[in-house]
Amino acid sequence: MKALLICEYREGKLLDSTYELLAFADRLGADKAMVLIGNEAAAPGFDGKVYLADAGKCGEYNPDLHKQIVLEAVARENPDYIVFVHSSYGWDLAPRVAAALRAGQISEIVGIVDGKFEVTCCNAKMRRSVVPKTARAVLTIQAGAFSLAGEPHGTPQLEQLSLAEAASGVEFVGYEAAEKKDVDLAKAEVIVSAGRGVGKKDNVAVIAALAKALGGELGASRPVVDAGWVEHSHQVGTTGQSVSPKLYVACGISGAIQHLAGMKKSDFVVAINKDKDAPIGEVADVLVVADVMQFVPALTAKCAR
Amino acid sequence: MNILVCVKQVPDMESRFKINSEGVWYDEADLAYRMNEYDEYAVEQAVRLKEQLGGEPVITVLSIGPDRVVEALKKALAMGCDRGVHVRDSHHYRKDPWQMASIIAAYAKDQGFDLIFTGMQSQDRGSAQVGVTVAELLGYACATTLVGFAFDNGVITAKRELEGGTKGVVKLRLPALVTCQLGLNIPRYPTLPNIMKAKKKEILALPVADLLKEEGLVITERMYPPAKKGGGIVLEGDVGDLADRLIGILKEKTAVLR
Fold first, then answer.
1. Which of the four pLDDT bands, split at 50, 70 and 90, describes residue B60?
2. Hey, which end of chain A has fewer CB within 10 Å, N or C?
């Protein structure tokens, strides 16, 4: 069994998530080869073959050309699995490769159980066990679900892929940096975050009051930022800030994987949610099953006393 | 301009899910349904583009599923889409993303759509495959995960959301398909007059058998709830009492409360 692993590379650097692909292939017990669309200096620590295409020539985001490059490596390597990280790069490119190969695709794998792929669904409340029907399959793995035991090491054998031009209606213009943060949540010892369960913008003040009573900062989940209730600089999660406070209080946050990825390193997590089955319960040290707008004011009053 | 928006109807994610008798999907009975959240942004962006272009574009909204999905189509029509297409399918949950994409592509291939909007993923299955695969099957330019959309002189300038808050800016030529991320815009609530107007808009019903020619490429063998990791304390009961118990725990386990 052989897995072709597609490296993650952005703004001139190999992304660490690339090594999760190696960890996944090890779990699978597969032989490994990699594809890097980047540069030689960014080659991963890995004893094996790496197909290298120059991102300086073909662009970091050029999905039609990247598809052709991956297909060229597939033709040379004849893998059973082509594996991407389930990221803005992977979920964009993987279905293009799968469609070209007419291969089954399984998205956002979190585990391997009895040789079958485990994926999450219904906002992480349920799991499915999925298998491909095609001899060759495209897989994407959830970021953070697989990690290497030790430091990556090794010297790859690089094999250059010659680049053909690919016709494309997509042109990459450039990157826009993340907005400047007016709140540095990374340094906060206590963070009290508001989620959709607070109900409306006016109620955010109630959560902010608890944050103040505990001497902490206000955080927020994605939906309340998207709704304009809280500024983006307070957002915790994959596209916001990653935090590791001594105490994290999640108020009315269901616990989407992107949010959990940003706060799971907190020392102590309290979740307040009326849904006992909400995925936030998986990472909470204490789950308070209650209506946020009833419970939080009561807690704030007792803390302030 | 001819625009297609694809929407899915999904259960409220706060529902309690039970497994169906086949063991491969949730039991669809006794659930409250709504339009897939990502698709609301797709509908809104299509309607905004129509408004920008002085009302000229015609927006078709398509959904696949049992009769209940007509409610999602009606919402999209009330938000400003012009006509609905209901691909009737009571076994939708047994189809994989490849089949779903092939159904949409089979419908779209002769319709001459210039621009297709989809959500970046569904809240229930969450494969993030269907939109991109439709684009591949139709040979359309495609960009995913949009948090910014502008249209000028026949060219789309899109902002893709990348990890860590960075955005990738891309230009797309028509025909194109874009998948919409949460936060792309603020979806409107249908007003009562628009809900009334939407009742007169056409919804075309098509049997799925007319459009589906593809076998599935992956099989769901089983659906099940995740194993409980345990360890966490669950507090339930009277609110005032809960606050005291939580404060007790925080004093014992953290240095935050003195």
1. very high
2. C
The domain ranges of chain B are: 2-210
CA nearest to A245 within chain B: B256
Residues of chain A with CATH 3.40.50.620: 2-160
How many other β-carbons are positioned within 10 Å of the β-carbon of residue B5?
26
B2-210 carries CATH number 3.40.50.620: yes
Q: How confident is the model at residue B231 (pLDDT cuts 50, 70, 90)?
A: low
pTM of structure: 0.91
Test A121 with B132 for CB contact under 8 angstroms.
no
Superfamily of domain A2-160: HUPs (3.40.50.620)
- Separation in Å, CA of A106 to nearest CA in chain B: 7
CA angle A58, A59, A62 (to 5 degrees): 90
ipTM of the complex, rounded to two decimals: 0.94
Q: Could you tell me which chain A residue has the CA closest to the CA of B14? A: A275
Q: Are the C-beta atoms of B136 and A100 separated by less than 8 Å?
A: yes
Residue A6 — very low, low, confident or very high, per pLDDT cuts 50/70/90? very high
Chain centroid to Cα B43, Å, comes to 10
Question: Are A289 and B132 an interchain contact pair (Cβ–Cβ within 8 Å)?
Answer: no
CATH code: domain A185-304 is 3.40.50.1220
| CB < 8 Å to B125, chain A | 121
Share of chain B above pLDDT 70, in %: 98
As given in the structure block, the two tokens for residue B93 are 């949950």
